[in-house]
Amino acid sequence: MSGQSKKNLMTSRRFWLAAALGLVPTELRGQVAILESVAGSGRGGVWRLRFRTGPATRMKAAKATLLLHLAEGEAPGGIEILKPLKGRAAAAPQRDGWVTVTLDPRCAQKLLETDAWLEFRAPPGIVFHLPSQTRFAPYLVAEGGR
After folding, report:
1. Residues of the chain with pLDDT > 70: what percent?
2. So what's the pLDDT on residue 30?
3. How many Å from the N-terminal Cα to the C-terminal Cα in the chain?
4. Residues with pLDDT less than 50, the chain
5. Where are the domains of the chain?
6. E-assigned strand segments in 4-138
7. pLDDT tens track for 9-30
8. What CATH number does the domain located at 27-145 have?
9. Cβ burial, residue 63 (10 Å; 0-12/13-18/19+)
10. Nearest-CA neighbor of 101 among 49, 57, 53?
11. Which end of the chain, N or C, is more open, meaning fewer C-beta atoms within 10 Å of its C-beta?
12. How far apart are CA 135 and CA 146, in angstroms?
């Protein structure tokens, strides 16, 4: 192996070792916050959820996924977001009755910054578990950086 090849290999190894040890600057690393729901209600197909956002208030959301568990009905193809920002969100069934909903990052950011309620409408006949059913409580997974 030539001297230049060894040098490139060592530089590459040092970089990956530094990354593995967390020595890469914070702005280059992604962050993940798993936020539990602390309050919720459902009435007439409209669901309201509030999440413990304290651990992620300084996060800049790049991606957000809502995890819901079905109590009744089939997983919807999507839900209508009413608050904090109006819009449509795609939903997909997962194992054991869980449903993932892809939220717009701007909606997630609003939830993180203002500790707002997430309000959405699901198709008729669908019932989700609320935070009081801790085994199946909703979660918000926010991914991003500072």
Report:
1. 77
2. 67
3. 41
4. 5-29
5. 27-145
6. 31-43, 46-51, 60-72, 78-83, 87-93, 98-103, 118-121, 127-128
7. 444 444 443 444 444 344 434 6
8. 2.60.120.970
9. middle
10. 49
11. N
12. 30
